[in-house]
Amino acid sequence: MSAVTVYAEAQAQLKDAEARLQACEAPGQPPNAFTPAIQHHVSALLGALLTASSELNALARREMTTVKREKVQARAAKLRDEQAQLRSRYDALRSRYDEALAQQQRHALLGSGAGGQQNDIDRRWNAQAPGANGQQNGNPEATILMMDGLLHEHNVLQNTGDRLDDYIGMGRQALEELYEQRSMLKGTQRRLLDIANSLGLSTTLIRYIERRSRQDQWFFWGGVVACLFGFYLIVHFIG
């Protein structure tokens, strides 16, 4: 794939991520507008942009002229900077979403506790907590502590998923670079074989010329001797 194609695809992905983030950042948009589906999609786009930047750097090393190489490297650096800016905006929206979700769940749990009603999470907490036989039932503080722990686990798992996506992108990038190096080594091997074959033909040609030169020398000296012998016969019999 050429550097122009990679950069064009990266620009399309950049515009898609920019549009989704901008829609969630618009005034009046609630924090929950940045849904998990949008988060996953934008995270995948950011990983693809990072991979495209690495691909451009790899393609820049294969450019023959300095001007083209510097141009591709500049595009790769620009794409990496834009990806970093989008990542910062993504993290900000993600933090806002997590905070709003935690606050909403706290209010819901406090409301259900005040009304004397318990949801499934309350029942699980009361069943597992020490002194569950009447000590923790309907206790909002215990429910908040339990929800804080669950939210922390949720954030850790989601951050781990994002890091795994980054690692997968880095692994794909390394694999693609290995494939490119393999192709370059194959091309170098073919060129070396062509040069070796050309050198072999040149050596054979030189040997043929040297052999032909020796034959021409024998013909020349033979002709000289024949001419001298003919002159001798002419002078002897006619003169």
UniProtKB/TrEMBL annotation:
Protein's job: SNARE required for protein transport between the ER and the Golgi complex.
Transmembrane feature ranges: 218-238
A GO MF label: SNARE binding
UniProt topology in membrane: Single-pass type IV membrane protein
Native organism: Caulochytrium protostelioides
Keywords: Coiled coil, Golgi apparatus, Membrane, Protein transport, Transmembrane, Transmembrane helix, Transport
UniProt keyword annotation of Oxidoreductase present: no
Coiled coil, from the record: 69-103
InterPro entries: GOSR2/Membrin/Bos1
Cellular localization per UniProt: Endoplasmic reticulum membrane; Golgi apparatus membrane
Protein name: Protein transport protein BOS1
CC terms in the record's Gene Ontology section: endoplasmic reticulum membrane; ER to Golgi transport vesicle membrane; Golgi membrane; late endosome membrane; SNARE complex
Keyword Nucleus in annotation: no
Family the UniProt entry places it in: Belongs to the BOS1 family.
Principal localisation: endoplasmic reticulum
GO-annotated biological processes: endoplasmic reticulum to Golgi vesicle-mediated transport; protein transport; vesicle fusion
Domain of life, source organism: Eukaryota
